[in-house]
Design brief:
The protein is α/β, with parallel strands linked by helices and about 280 residues long. About 20% of the residues lie in helices and about 25% in strands. Helix 1 runs parallel beside helix 2 (about 65-75) and helix 1 packs parallel to helix 5.
Length: about 280
């Protein structure tokens, strides 16, 4: 079967796993160098619950999906880029040096390089009611060592109070005035006006295990600057999975850099040149 000039068994220059900010930018960067690529979009986005972008010139306060749709339209100008609404479940490098990606429908895709731009998923604490709150606070939630460290560092600052009790549930009592109820394991409760929490994250998919990729202490892919090459030859990463600064503007910059780096690597190999990075 042939779709838009590409056969099912086509070998792409790059397989891009992830169809949001960094993946789409990487694809656009590669398109400018006339490389072939296929973008796989699982339609699972970390910012899916948000209806507004922020710190994004010309796109601030607009729905993230509006940006993605516009970027996909931009890519329609380039017949070297394909777009598939598919989830990739595994990636492996064959003896022939090519990467083979398998989607959840059993389809096989082949490419010379891989860009992992699938983002991260937040690891929420197992506290009933957490997901229903728009604003969540940071308690140490049973971590007494952390509570002690915070108490020491904030010594003398009376406006701060450290609470190490284990939280058993959260409930939104009212959206307007100090009505978020925090219930602790000892059945005591407290109401707060504003709660904030920064959850841990992990890279989506099992690609780190499948490809033997090194991870950072925070669970992101370990990459080498400036083009975010991972510890596996031929595999690059972009966006939220490479940095603690998980914001849209950084994802776009990262995607552009990775696209440029992958293009350079492919051209070096085609011309038999020594790699410059």
């Amino acid at each position: 079967m042939t779709v838009n000039g590409f056969d099912d068994d086509a070998v792409y220059d790059v397989l891009i796993i992830g169809g949001s900010f960094s993946g789409l930018t990487a694809a656009l960067t590669l398109a400018r160098q006339l490389h072939t690529a296929v973008v796989f979009d699982s339609e699972s986005y970390r910012n899916a619950r948000s209806k507004h972008l922020h710190v994004m010139p010309a796109w601030d306060y607009q729905d993230p999906e509006t940006f993605r749709a516009a970027a996909r339209r931009d890519l329609n100008h380039y017949d070297t880029i394909q777009f598939r609404r598919k989830t990739i479940k595994s990636v492996a490098k064959g003896d022939n040096g090519l990467f083979e990606a398998t989607d959840t429908d059993g389809g096989l895709w082949h490419g010379r390089k891989v860009i992992l731009a699938s983002g991260v998923q937040e690891l929420y604490p197992g506290i009933p009611g957490y997901e229903n709150l728009k604003n969540v606070t940071i308690y140490t939630n049973g971590n007494e060592n952390l509570a002690q460290e915070l108490s020491t560092s904030l010594k003398g600052q009376q406006q701060y109070h450290i609470d190490h009790r284990v939280i058993s549930s959260l409930a939104m009592v009212s959206n307007f005035d100090a009505q978020i109820e925090v219930t602790f394991a000892d059945d005591a409760n407290k109401r707060e006006a504003f709660l904030a929490h920064s959850p841990f994250t992990r890279a989506k998919g099992s690609f780190a295990e499948q490809l033997g990729l090194k991870l950072t202490a925070t669970g992101d892919y370990e990459v080498q600057p400036p083009f975010s090459a991972t510890s596996a030859e031929g595999v690059f990463a972009a966006g939220d999975v490479t940095t603690m600064f998980k914001v849209a503007t950084n994802a776009i910059a990262s995607g552009s850099m990775v696209g440029a780096g992958v293009s350079a690597r492919i051209q070096e190999e085609q011309m038999g040149m020594k790699s410059v990075f």
